[in-house]
């Protein structure tokens, strides 16, 4: 967000600091699963013993986001609600004005697919594909109360408006049920530089093997679609 503000893409009237709300922070073991607060920082997730043992792909992904200083302040909610990205959108004001802007910001055409009618900016968050492996649900809160939905329903296939959050809603927590036994999970990504950069593509995998046979296989992707 701060980079987009500096580039003139985002121009909020004010920013609200949420870390002073203790109910939105921490990793809680509920017995039948865990709850991760929306303001829990990525470093804490990467170092969490319960995540590393039971939700390995999530811990790996949290430890792969950007660099150490970013993970010290970046949060679960921030990574899940990350704006979509595009080479024609994430540029300086001067660059975008010289290229006639784009559909996502002040323009009338998507330069990725000029003949199309929608924005093809991609979602590049690391945590979403790993959390989807474990049937994660997100808890949202706003002026009309709270609601809880599957994580997959937080997103839609629209680069301009990819989140289903309504006005004044916050992502306050993620809920993960206990995973079954005998599964292995992991996460890997490709990026231009080995640190800091967003993934060009990331893949999360969950696999269960019983008696030498794969009985369950799930794959989640990031960086390849608005979803």
TrEMBL record:
It holds the Pfam family FAD_binding_5. Keywords: FAD, Flavoprotein, Oxidoreductase. Residues 1-181 form the FAD-binding PCMH-type domain. One of its GO terms (molecular function) is FAD binding. This is FAD-binding PCMH-type domain-containing protein. It comes from marine metagenome.
